[in-house]
Automatic annotation (TrEMBL):
It is a lipid-anchor. It is found in: Mitochondrion inner membrane. GO terms for cellular component: MICOS complex. It holds the Pfam family MIC19_MIC25. PANTHER family: COILED-COIL-HELIX-COILED-COIL-HELIX DOMAIN CONTAINING 6, MICOS COMPLEX SUBUNIT MIC19. This is Coiled-coil-helix-coiled-coil-helix domain-containing protein 3, mitochondrial. Keywords: Disulfide bond, Lipoprotein, Membrane, Mitochondrion, Mitochondrion inner membrane, Myristate. One of its GO terms (biological process) is inner mitochondrial membrane organization. It comes from the Eukaryota. The keyword Membrane applies.
Length: 173
């Protein structure tokens, strides 16, 4: 004999267990859904972070490339400026070598004229006084020695040449 009360109690317990099972299963489903949602959201967050990180890295690489390109262009500009300065220096060097050659030629001509003038003046003085002019001879000898010692630097003897001409002019008077 089954007691109605016991039966009601059992049915109520079974219903409560069934309800608890369904609630547990519903909670498990909700928990799985929440886990799936959290996993999806976390995956989306990670993807956004990865994209942001890649964008940051890409921007950094682009900045570095731009800086490298700018440095390369600056180096090219400096190289061109250096080449231009080198060409300019070579041009100046050629100009000064040409000027030096002209000065040496003029100095040689001056030496020739001076020697001729000396000889002429010495002959005149010797004829006039019947003896060689000592101071003029001494200056000419000094001048000739200087010119021989400084054949590549003929302008070094210009002071002696000036004294010699002054002496010759004085002797002519």
């Amino acid at each position: 004999v089954v007691n109605d009360e016991e039966l009601k109690k059992r049915i109520a317990e079974e219903l409560a267990l069934d309800r608890a099972r369904r609630e547990t299963e519903a909670q498990k489903r909700r928990l799985r859904q929440e886990q799936t949602y959290v996993r999806d959201e976390f995956g989306k967050l990670l993807e956004r972070e990865r994209i942001a990180s890649n964008e940051h890295l890409t921007r950094a690489i682009l900045r570095e490339r731009a800086a490298t390109e700018e440095e390369r262009q600056k180096a090219q500009r400096f190289a061109k400026q250096l080449e231009e300065k080198d060409r300019e220096l070579k041009k100046h060097d050629a100009y000064y070598k040409e000027q030096l050659a002209r000065l040496e030629e003029r100095s040689a001509q001056f030496y020739k004229v001076t020697t001729e003038q000396y000889q002429k003046a010495a002959d005149e003085v010797a004829a006039r006084f019947n003896k060689p002019p000592n101071s003029i001879s001494f200056l000419l000898i000094c001048f000739l020695q200087c010119y021989q010692q400084h054949a590549q630097e003929t302008l070094s003897c210009s002071a002696l040449a000036s004294q010699y001409l002054h002496c010759v002019n004085h002797a002519k008077q």
